């Protein structure tokens, strides 16, 4: 079977182009949007009540409640981070704790004990619920009583 000549190919391509453009043009002319044009532009009246009904109400922002560390049991508060240090007081079960540091092992937590005294108390970390992440706590020094 012989191949068509370049002139024949060009004729076929031109016919396809003409047919494609004419059908596209005719489709544009025959669309309903071009048949009818409104004589006056539409007017819009603000209906406040329907607007209020259409706009969804925005939920109030939820403020997360801060997590407060608490003691899991009655705790002996010590002057240093081990059971070998002297007990300087005790805290009841469920007492709120202000954790300010940790020992190098992370086993003991330094807390503010006796506000304004200038020294920390130490409690076992396993006896504290909702304790802050140990990686965010600084190492706390042992403060001795005068």
Give structural notes.
- With 146 residues, the protein is of the alpha+beta class.
- It has two domains: 38 residues; 67 residues, SH3 type barrels, CATH 2.30.30.40.
- Helix content is 24%, strand content 18%.
- The chain is elongated.
- The termini are far apart.
- The model has no long low-confidence stretch (mean pLDDT 77).
Briefly say what this structure is.
This protein is 24% helix and 18% strand. It has 146 residues and is an alpha+beta fold. The strands form three sheets. The chain has a three-stranded antiparallel β-sheet, with no helix packed on it.
Number of strands: 7
Mean pLDDT: 77
Task: Output the radius of gyration.
Answer: 41 Å
Distance between the amino and carboxyl termini: 112 Å
CATH evolutionary superfamily of the largest domain: SH3 Domains
Q: CATH topology of the largest domain, which one? A: SH3 type barrels
Q: Largest sheet, if any?
A: 3 strands, antiparallel
Strand order of the largest sheet: 4-5-6
Quickly name the level 1 CATH class of the largest domain. Answer: Mainly Beta
User: Please, what is the oligomeric state?
Assistant: single chain
Q: How much strand content do the residues show? A: 15-25%
What is the CATH architecture descriptor of the largest domain?
Roll
The topology string of helices and strands comes to HHHEEEEEEE
- The outline comes out as elongated
């Amino acid at each position: 079977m012989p191949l068509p000549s370049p002139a024949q190919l060009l004729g076929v391509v031109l016919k396809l182009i003409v047919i494609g453009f004419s059908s596209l043009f005719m489709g544009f002319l025959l669309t309903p949007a071009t048949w009818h044009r409104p004589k006056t532009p539409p007017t819009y009246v603000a209906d406040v009540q329907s607007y209020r009904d259409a706009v969804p109400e925005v939920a109030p922002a939820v403020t997360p409640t801060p997590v407060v560390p608490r003691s899991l049991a009655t705790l002996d508060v010590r002057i240093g981070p081990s059971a070998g240090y002297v007990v300087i007081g005790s805290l009841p079960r469920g007492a709120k704790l202000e954790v300010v540091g940790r020992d190098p092992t992370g086993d003991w937590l330094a807390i503010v004990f006796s506000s304004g005294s200038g020294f920390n108390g130490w409690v076992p970390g396993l006896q504290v619920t909702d304790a802050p992440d140990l990686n965010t706590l600084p190492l706390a020094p042992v403060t001795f009583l005068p």
